Amino acid sequence: MFEIFGIPSQALFGQLLIGLINGSFYALLSLGLAVIFGMLNIINFSHGAQYMMGGFAAFILLQQTGLGYWPALIIVPILVGITGMIIERTMLQWLYKLDHLYGLLLTFGLALIIEGVARNFYGSAGLPYRVPDSLTGGQNLGFMFLPNYRAWVIVASLTVCISTWFVIERTRLGAYLRAATENPALVGAFGINVPRMITLTYGFGVALAAFAGVMAAPIYNVSPQMGAELIIVVFAVVVIGGMGSILGAILTGFGLGVIEGLTKVFFPEASNTVIFVIMVIVLLVRPAGLFGRRA
Questions:
Q1: Counted domains in the chain
Q2: Residues of the chain with pLDDT under 70
Q3: Would you state the pLDDT for residue 8?
């Protein structure tokens, strides 16, 4: 084992791996937030609760029906995404022309309700969810041991994030979505059902959170607090990257995960606050965020 800056390589690369894993979840969740804010101008504070719903839905499917990880990875985002579309149609659509504060308060209340229901039925303790058999074990890279499941999480997150960015920024559908945020009346004049597009967009953002929740279940266990513990950090990531910026959400999510991991090696006392320190600095220098557009 060799040393880098006086630190054992295994410890350094291990923290980098943890940073990449955390960054994978930061990127997925902040991507969903960016998609929802960019399209609906709603600050979705229930995003963490919907992430938690993904983990619990996977756990319930396994316990009640025997459906394992791989079916849950497909079914759960669809089911939770549908609940998101119902929320958008029944509640959020009435708030689009109001101040952002109303949407934030409504979604914050929904998050408390969802978390309370989960705690009432399952308690506050974490519930274990096993790693799928096909991803057990790991690879010895010489300088570190790489668990297969951790590698899968990073690759899957990168794939989903890049695919989402490509669809929104490089396809005709993405052009319609971006145009609908700027001039919905004009887009509607071309025969496009803008309200349906908005509903599907919110459902997709929620599905991203649920997808992250399913992937997080074997790593962090499933608990009612799993979303609340993460959402504040994710909001900081979104603010640093720029509200509504897809590319900003992805790059900042992975980047801050790595920075957080390195901070645990070189200055552990600051690891829980480094992201918020960066947020303050970015807001002072560039209030719109690193990739955000100035008002």
A1: 1
A2: 1-9, 293-295
A3: 65
